[in-house]
Structures are given as structure tokens and as C-alpha cells.
Amino acid sequence: MASIVCPSCKRNTSLLDSNYNDTFQCENCGEILRVRIKDNRVTNVRTHNIDLEIPEGLPEDLSKILNESVACYESGSFAASVVMAGLFIEGALKKTNVGGKQLVEMIQNAKDEKIISNLGFHVATASRLLRNIGAHFSDELTKITDSDARLTLEMARKLAVDILESGALRTKI
């Protein structure tokens, strides 16, 4: 049995499941929490502000980066969320072993190799451009909104689904 501490009311709650990765409503304050427990060890508890389904089958390191991007979003760090989502996309493409020194080349190669769909290609291109805003300080960086970050997270999720459906991650890791 694992015990979690609600970030809102700071009270302990015990969960019976030793492996849990879902939302949970705090029985003390009613706050919706995002909870992750693996092998009876609590690895993540945070308030739940976005409903983004992390695709099953991602390598653990990529899943962690995408979860960190969501955590940045949920804490109000929208620029950080966009940058982390971009890192996730770059990492996912690198793990498929598509060629290319730059992300723009990897995206094109992934489309050509049918690792991502035509829609995925446009999503990846848009996401890359949004991420570029976060590569260096600029006034644009300070203007990234929750909507921008949410869109980037949804784009990262779409690319993850494309890559998983192509089988490229399972066969080339």
C-alpha cells in the first residue's frame, strides 16, 4: 500500500494499488490529483490541470520527459512546458534512428520513412517552430501562454502516437 500527500491540503491518503497511473480525487479537500505509483513507490503526485493521455508503450525516459512537460504546464511554467515538449519530440525521433543532424531534417526523414503521418509532419514542424522560441531568450518567450503550451503538448502526444503506431520505437531502440 502506498501513501500520497495531497499538494493542496497536505494530508496523507493511502492507496491500495501498488501500481497506479491515473487521476485521483483527494478524499480530504476534493482536489483532482495526477498520481503515479510504481512498485509501491510514489513517483509523482501533482494537481491535475490538463487531461493529456500519455501513450502506452513509450520508453521510460521519453515518458518521463513528456510527464515533466505536463508538470511544467500544470505549475504555470508554460515556456518550460513548450521546451520540454520539444525535447520529447526530438528524443522520440532520435530513438527511431531517423537520420538528420537537425530536428528539421529528422522530421522530414520521419515523414519520408512513414514513421509519422502527413498530419504528424505538419504538427512536428509547428511544434519545432514553437520550441525554437524557447531555445534562446526573447520577448516572445515571455509571451508563451497556457494555450500555446497546451497545443504543444497535444502536438507532442500526436507525434508519440504516430511513432508508436509505425512500430519504429519498438523495433529500433
The string of secondary-structure elements, in order, is EEEEEHHHHHHH
The beta-strand count equals 5
Report, as a whole number of angstroms, the end-to-end distance.
33 Å
Per CATH, the architecture of the largest domain is: Up-down Bundle
Shape: globular
CATH topology of the largest domain: Four Helix Bundle (Hemerythrin (Met), subunit A)
- How many domains make up the 3D coordinates? 2
In the CATH scheme, the class of the largest domain would be Mainly Alpha
Task: Classify the beta-strand content into a percent band.
Answer: 15-25%
Write the CATH homologous superfamily of the largest domain: Nucleotidyltransferases  domain 2
Strand order of the largest sheet: 3-4-5
- What's the gyration radius in Å? 17 Å
Secondary-structure-derived class: alpha+beta
Overall description:
By secondary structure, this protein is an alpha+beta fold. It is 51% helix and 16% strand. It contains 7 helices and 5 strands, in the order βββββααααααα. A 3-stranded antiparallel sheet has the order 3-4-5, with no helix packed on it. Strands 1-2 form a two-stranded antiparallel sheet. The chain is globular, with a radius of gyration of 17 Å. The mean pLDDT is 87.
Which helices and strands, and how do they pair?
Layout: E1 2-5, E2 12-15, E3 20-25, E4 32-38, E5 41-47, H1 60-74, H2 78-95, H3 103-112, H4 118-133, H5 139-142, H6 146-166, H7 168-172
Antiparallel strand pairs: 1-2, 3-4, 4-5
Helix pairs in contact: 1-2, 1-6, 2-4, 2-6, 3-4, 4-6
